[in-house]
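Aim 2, interim progress: modelling of the FE2/S2 (inorganic) cluster-bound target.
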Amino acid sequence: MAYTLNINGAARTADVEGDTPLLWVLRDTLGLTGTKYGCGAGVCGACTVHIDGQVVRSCVMPVSAVGKGKVRTIEALSPDRSHALQQAWIAEQVPQCGYCQSGMLMAAAALLKSHPKPSDAQIEEAMTNLCRCGTYPRVRRAIRRAAGMHVEELA
Ligand code: FES
Ligand code: FES
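Predicted structure of the complex, ligand included:
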């Protein structure tokens, strides 16, 4: 069946089964490979995108459930890496292998939208994505930096 989706502000059509995960539509059908496959079970967050501004794990979202929702992927976070989070990610040298990072950024972007100056508890609560490289402290620093909050200098 053909599904017409709103992806990063444009109408995109995918002729797939209704139970196809949105992740595979993004990656395989539409070629948006910035969104990653990790666990396929809604656990790791590597596949995080936004639908209507809310964080969604696209590996467990059937394409038939997307409807008219506005899907935003890492490719649309900014046209030129100018998003405050991208700048902070570079400044704090957050990525290691990088695999989890697009999901991290999308989760962080949703957090800052709802909480422009998040508390440590709010960061903790929102950032449930997994990182096998252990970048969690740098992720927290980068979020604080992007929010214009104090970031301790590293010794
Ligand atoms: S790949 Fe979707 S949560 Fe892990
Ligand atoms: S940077 Fe390697 S998994 Fe997170």
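The longest helix spans residues 101-114. Residues 2-75 form a domain with the Ubiquitin-like (UB roll) fold (CATH 3.10.20.30).
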